[in-house]
Design a protein that fits this description.
Blueprint lengths: L4 H32 L14 H28 L2 H31 L5 H24 L38
């Protein structure tokens, strides 16, 4: 079976995004821990008024992104419509929350002030993830346009419940005695 174009692109994006989401989860957890402990004067942290909101959404986006990649890995293995539903919907939700974290990262950068290197790395990863996750979502849903790009949204045997087509042995119009 030939690999489709979208599957060939989505596979490396899945692994790239998984690694980036793991990094975001690590940095955001560290920064949130320092923020809760009141250690905002730590040399590698800093922050401003948007920091707390950004950290909460970054952790939420990272957790949803990691779960999305687990479901996406299952879909890339099976590459069927039924696995696409779980992978596609979780990827869209993960992208939406990542887009919120992206907006808060931009707001934090816009407010300014001194921010440590860990916070700046977290902002950068979140900004890059907003675009790579969107590209991943588009690759998952590329099959809407042509089965060349995805599992095909119109598989003829899908949803038939295992019933053979009319005309095969033992199947057809039932006959009744009049």
């Amino acid at each position: 079976m030939a690999r489709t174009v979208a599957r060939s692109v989505a596979t490396p994006l899945l692994f790239l995004n998984l690694i980036m989401y793991l990094i975001v989860l690590g940095f955001a957890s560290w920064c949130l821990n320092k923020y809760i402990n009141g250690q905002t004067n730590h040399p590698s942290f800093g922050g401003n008024g948007a920091t707390m909101f950004f950290l909460v959404f970054a952790i939420l986006a990272a957790v949803l992104g990691i779960i999305s990649k687990v479901l996406g890995g299952n879909h890339l293995r099976a590459w069927r419509n039924d696995s696409l539903a779980a992978a596609g919907s979780s990827a869209i939700v993960a992208w939406a929350v990542t887009a919120l974290a992206f907006g808060l990262a931009c707001k934090e950068i816009n407010i300014g002030g001194w921010r440590g290197w860990r916070l700046r790395v977290l902002e950068g990863f979140t900004i890059v993830l907003a675009f790579t996750q969107l590209l991943y979502v588009l690759m998952l849903h590329a099959g809407m346009f042509s089965s060349r790009y995805g599992p095909g949204y119109r598989e003829p045997e899908y949803g038939s419940g295992g019933v053979p087509p009319v005309g095969e042995k033992g199947v057809g119009v039932p006959t009744t005695a009049v």
